[in-house]
Structures are given as structure tokens and as C-alpha cells.
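During the second half of the funding period, the structural biology subgroup turned its attention to how the target accommodates small molecules. The most pressing case was alpha-L-arabinofuranose, which had performed well in the primary screen but for which no bound structure existed. We therefore specified the complex as follows and requested a full 3D prediction, including the ligand pose.
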Amino acid sequence: MKELVNTRFIYTTHVISKALIGLTLFCFILNPVHAQNKYRNAKKISPDLFGLFFEDINYAADGGLYAEFIQNRSFEYNPTERKEWHPLYNWDYFTTGYSYGNVNIETSQPVHPNNPHYIILEAEHIYQQDGSVGIKNQGFDGIVVKAGNLYQFSVFAKQLSIEPVTLKISLQNRKGEVLAEQNLTVSSIQWGKQTAVLQPSADYDTASLVIALVSKGKIALDVVSLFPEETFKKRPNGMRADLAQLLADMKPAFIRFPGGCLVHGDGLGNMYRWKNTIGPIEQRVEQRNIWGYHQTGGLGYYEYFQFCEDIGAKPLPVLPAAVSCQNSGGTWRIGGTGQRALPLEDMQDYIQEVLDLIEWANGPVNSTWGSKRAAAGHPASFNLQYIGIGNEEKITPEFEQRFKLVHDAVKGRYPEITVIGTSGPFHSGEDFEKGWAFAKNQQVKVVDEHYYVQPEWFISNQYRYDNYPRSSGNVYLGEYASWGNQLKNALAEAAFMTGLERNGDVVQLASYAPLFAKKNNTQWKTDMIFFDNTRYYLTPNYHVQKLFSVNKGDRYLNNIIQKEDRDTSIAASATGDSRTGDIILKLVNTGKDKKTIATDLTGYKFSSDGVKILLSGTADQQNSFSDPDAVKPDQGPIAIKKKMNIELPPLSLMVIRIKTLK
Ligand code: AHR
């Protein structure tokens, strides 16, 4: 009897479960499942695919993103940077009335040994009531102030005369009229930081900062600084808010910093050493920038990491591989023979320097380096996950030996950190081949590729990664751009980027380069954002990068784009965002004729109200200071159907967002 009951029970359960399976299958056939379920089986796209590359090239940092107004604030400019530069460069000494005095450069008792030069300003005689002796700085081609805003002035000073010294600090216009003024009295014979807040009475774009002695006296001065209070997120020692916001708007997954060639430097002494760029600004080591100007290190590792956190991007620092740039000393003209390698006996210290960075970024507050991060104001970990070793190096035995030492030490101590290797400066050729072979051999997880090429190359190479091996290292496309900032360049990059999405399982990270260029201070012609002291304009390339970054998906949806032939003048991708359930189409027409791309949403349940963003124009159209919006995306509605033949205007990128339904 018991057996019969059991058999019946089993039979009934069997029937019910069969019915349930049948019902599920029935629903599956008749009712498209919600997109999120479908995404589960689709190919994953790296969550870190689209990020930013930041390098202090084209005055991107000092005089650019770094909000410091004072140029040569620490009197460290020197003729090895530019022949005409010296410690008083960009400072004018002046006297008014029949006052007289002098200014001298000193190095005997600096604020800090890392910052050796300072000045001594002396007023021997002050003429009548309004006489003065002083110095004046015009910033980076003028200091931009707004009426009513607050500006933080600071200076290191010590009294050298018997009596305390009063300084008049002012912002002045070109006629010498005062826009804001404060007095500071220096009464210590030890170096100390003095501060004042200036509030201008009028807007002015080319103001000067004036420091004047208005009574007889002698004083030592160094690290003269002026910041707007309104930096990005009001961070002290912070960033120019408008420029930083442009980067935040892109929602980058990561930011690579501080370069570029800046990393490996022009000779070993010029390598970028991260420890030189943390701590109080008066203790940072300033140096010649490989791009031919001065680097204060004021925008240093702490500021980079903090900025990444502020905008939700992962930090991706790149450190030298203990070799200098192969073009050091301008040797690119003779085949890049300038690479120099750190002596092997110095490698242990160098490896420790790299390991210390990871401890500084992630270590507990009671660790040696973690405590320095905490002391700077950030006790929590910065969650460093990636670290690049080397920048587009020439793959020599010297490089290989040093890279391996650093790589193995990092992997041994911090296996959770992804170390990124390098494959030379081109998309193919000797260093590229050798770099990848070496990286595979060493089981390097991600390899950095760089290429700057004509737009046609990007169009015809949009399938480059389709056949990349999936079994060895992933790709970090760390620097790429087509030569130009016209619409045709941006669209060639867009076509290529659909290929990055399609191969987002093997291409883990990608960043366009370079990012910023300051008017009249540009070393690299093709850049993403152009700016001067008050304005900026976005290139079509910026718009493309942003459209991909803010419309990224995390799954590649294979069957939606119905494009069988390899007509390279059109390119397309279909991705899914499993968080929102949205389907995102990116359709590119790089040709001069309109084209049609067919799509098929069979199997998806979707809303018919879609959003279409279109970037289009003529091939050579570009933006400029006088016409910043000549090329810009337009957004509007689009009716979504199961099967569509989407017409693409000539020279266009169309992004379509489709809401899926449950
Ligand atoms: O992005 C400009 C320069 O191009 C980078 O510094 C260097 O890595 C590359 O050659």
C-alpha cells in the first residue's frame, strides 16, 4: 500500500513537472523572454572597456587641468627646460615712485631640499605713502578672475629684516588697477605658510598677482600659489572645474595617468617617479617635462587617484619599466636608440618603489605607505586594480629583463593586481611582435597597444580583433587616434570602436589619446579637447568617445545587426545593458552616400519608443573656438520595430537606445 502511494506520488510529480516544462517552453516560443535573461548567454563585454588617457602634454596639467594660476610658483624654472627660462621667469620685478630695492635668487636655506630655489625681496627705500617694491606674476598668459568669487592665496615666507614685514597682496588688471587686495604680516624668521583670501570686484581674464613690500624690509619667499575656491568638487590643490566636468560627463571606466612618454622620460633622470608627486606641494620634486616645459608635480598621484574616485573611474597608473624612452635625446631621428636602462644593482630599490605604490593606494592605514595616503586625507583604500609597467617600449633585452623583475615581484606580492605590459608604439612591426611574444611568454594578463594612423586604417581594420587569440593576454588599447579632428576622423574611430565592442571579451580597456591641448601650447596636433584659459571646445572625436562611453553595454548581442557582407564603409554593433535591460545599437556610416542597415529584434519584447542620437555632417567639418558646436550630437525619438531598415545619413554615427519590456 505504502509502495502504491509512493508510486502514485512519483507519477503525479512527474506529470506536473512535465506540464511545467511544457508550459515554460510554450511561453518561451510565444512570448519573448525579457532581455535580461537573454543577456545571460550573450558574450560579455569588459566593464572597463572605455576609459580616458591623461598625459601632461600640450599644457594639459600645469596651466591646464591643474587649477593653479601662478606660473613658476616655486622659482624652479631653469634653462635646461628652455634656453630663455630661469628662476625669475614670468616674474616681473618692479618699484613704484622713487622706491628702490632688489630681488635675488637663493638656494642656501630652502623651504625643502626638493624645492631648492627661493627669492629674497628687499625694499631699501619706500618713496612716500604709495611707494612699493615687489614682484608680479601673470600666470599662464593671464589669471582669470570673476567678481565676487573667492581665490585662495598662499606663500611660504620668512622675515629677514629686524622688523616684521608687511606684504600687500593684490590682483590687478593690465592698467595696474586693483581688483582685490589683502595685507599679510610676516613676523617669523622661520619658513611658514601665509594665506589670504582675495575677492575681486570685477571680472577680468588677464589679471596679475602682485606681491609688494610697502615699507622698508627684507623677506624670503617661495611657493607662491593662487587657486580658485571653485575647483572641481572644491578639492584643495584641485582641478579646473569646467575641464574636469567634461571628463566626468564621459563617465569613463578608468583613467590612465600620467602618460604617455612622460612616464618613461627623456633619459633615466627624467623618468616620472610617483613618490616625487605626493605630499605637501612644497616638498614635491619639480622637473623638466618631456614635452619641453615645466612640470610642478602639483597635479600628482594623490590628485589623480582622488579625481578617479570622484568621478567613479578606476585609477590606472603607468610606471616606468626602469628604461627611458627610446627617443631620449631626440634619437627618434636615428631609429630610437636613446633607451637607457636602470643599472641592475638599482633594481631592488626600483621594484620596492613600484610595490610601495600598491601599498600606498590600497594598504591599511597602519602600513608604511598606506599611512601616508591616510595622512593626506584618504584613509580608505583607493582600490587600485590595474598597474601599467612601461609605455610603448622598444623591446630590448634590457627592457625584458627589467620588466620581468618588476612584473614577477608585483604578481608575487599582489596577485590580485593586473599588470599591463607593452607592445611598442605601432600597431604592427618588430616591437609589436616582440612585445606580444614576450608578454605571452611571461603570462602577462593585459598588453598595451598604441597606434596613431590615418582614418582609412581604422575603417579597413575594424575587424582587427575578431580573430585575436582568446587564450593569451587581453588587449589594452592604451593610445589610439586617427590623424585629425574632423568629423571623418571621429567616424573612422567610431567604426573601429564597434569592433572593440564586438570584441569586448578580448579588448579589456581602450583610451583615445591625447586628451587635452591648450591653445598656443600644443605639441601634439590631434587631441580630444582644446582649451584656453576661459574656453574650451569639444572635437567630434570627443563626442564619439562620449557616445560610446555613456552608452556602453555589458553584453554583445550577436543576431540583431543583419550585416553579412563586409562593406567597410558601414559598421555596427548591438550591445545589451543588463542593469537597465536596454539594447543599444551603434551604427556608423563613414561613406559619402546614405546607407541602410537592417536590424532584427525577434526574441525581444521592447517598447516602440526609442531614443536616437545622431552625429553627422560633412567629412571635413570640425569644431573651433569660434564655432564650438559645428559638429555635435542631436537627440530625438525613434519608433522601434521588430525588423527595421535603418537609414544612415552620409557621414554619421547613430546611437539607438531601445527599452526592453518584461
Ligand atoms: O599621446 C602622445 C604620445 O604618443 C604619448 O606620450 C606617447 O606614448 C605616444 O607616442
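Two results from this model are relevant to the next phase. Residues 2-30 form the longest helix (29 residues). Confidence is low (pLDDT under 50) at residues 1-33.
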